[in-house]
Amino acid sequence: MLLKVKRGWELPENAATDESVYVNRRALMKGLGAGVIAAPSLLASMKSAHSAIEEDPTAKLYPVDRNEKYKGERPLDEEEKVLAYNNFYEFGSHKYISSAAQAMPLRPWTVTIDGLVEEPMQIDFDSLIGKVQLEERVYRHRCVERWAMTVPWSGFTMDQLVKIARPKSDAKYIMMKTLADESSMPGLKAGWFPWPYTEGVRIDEAMNELTFLATGLYGKPVPKQNGAPLRLVLPWKYGFKSIKSIVSFTFTSEQPVGFWEELQAKEYGFWANVNPEVSHPRWSQAYEELLSSRERIKTRVYNGYGEYVAHMYDGMEQQVGERLFR
Questions:
Q1: pLDDT tens-place string over residues 9-52
Q2: At 114, is the secondary structure helix, strand, or coil?
Q3: Rounded to an integer, what distance in angstroms lies between the CA atom of residue 163 and that of residue 113?
């Protein structure tokens, strides 16, 4: 499908899912039916990919103990639908990229830690996972497009990676990058996008107890389409902040510009904290639609995680206005 950029880095209208897809329950049901029910061969391939754990040297680590402090407050979404419904523009601008994502190579996988750190390093993913304490957490996920889900992530708190990195005192932010492999990612041919995918967080956000680097999902290594082998999970922010398939962490004194922020900062700003009172320019954020049940519910500020994160933004409302939540 061809996408047309109107001017500069303006986001093409068909690069983001149309509002009606998320408002119209029948449209969402139809989409899920086409992607899951009506395509058994695709579903079989995803199950195979998620069950082929003998090829992953970290597979023996799962399942890990669940941290019951983080319960999600909702029933878990169906694994099959979570594996079948994904945003990963490196493999296509639609939701059903799971089959294409299986081409992404996961070994070797090197993670670079550089910038304002005591000693820049490159570390193999399998070595990194041996240096951290894994656990499982059930988190709610809220996409800027208004769909939502509740899933059990396995992984480790990001503060453990920060401690490994040993940042210098003038490091205020962390910029992350996704793998950009032209041999397996056809979406990279879309030259109007500012590849590679980048995102950033402030150091205090990285150190928050909720901030999670996921390595597993549903008690197994995280599937490729969901961000293998290492992805960020920020449950109080819109989903585009939770960068997938991370290959680098750069500590910096300057606020990074994320992938979607570079494309259209008015719609996808740096903070991206969930707020029902601040609408997206093209749709309201007052409610969300659950992926499995298709139930429409009211959106909560910070996605309901305010008790953990609100203090980090005290006094910032007047400084940045509504951009705080974009």
A1: 344 444 444 444 434 443 444 444 444 444 444 454 444 444 44
A2: strand
A3: 11
Q: In total, how many domains does the chain have?
A: 1
- Across the strands, what pairs with 249? 113, 176
- Does residue 231 lie in a domain region? yes
The stretch 106-131 carries a mean pLDDT of: 98
In a domain, 96, yes or no: yes
Burial class (CB in 10 A: 0-12, 13-18, 19+), 229: buried
Q: Please give the residue range of the domain that contains residue 28.
A: 16-307+319-325
| pLDDT for res 253 | 98
Tokens for 103? 């081409």
Say what the pLDDT of residue 22 is: 39
pTM attached to this predicted model: 0.85
CA distance 326 to 224: 27
User: Is the C-alpha dihedral spanning 288, 203, 321, 243 positive or negative?
Assistant: negative
248, part of any domain: yes
Tell me the sheet residues that pair with 237: 273
CATH number where 180 lies: 3.90.420.10
Q: How far apart are the first and last CA of the chain?
A: 28
User: Is residue 68, in this structure, part of any structural domain at all?
Assistant: yes
Taking the CA atoms of 54, 60, 63 and 69 in sequence, report the sign of the dihedral they define.
negative
Q: Structure tokens of 201?
A: 């967080």
Tens of pLDDT, residue by residue over 170-210, are: 999 999 999 999 999 999 999 999 999 999 999 999 999 99
Q: Is the pLDDT of residue 249 over 50?
A: yes
In percent, the amount of the chain with pLDDT more than 70 equals 80
SS3 call for 177: strand
The C-alpha atoms of residue 175 and residue 54 are separated, in whole angstroms, by 32
Contact 90, 84 (CB under 8 A): no
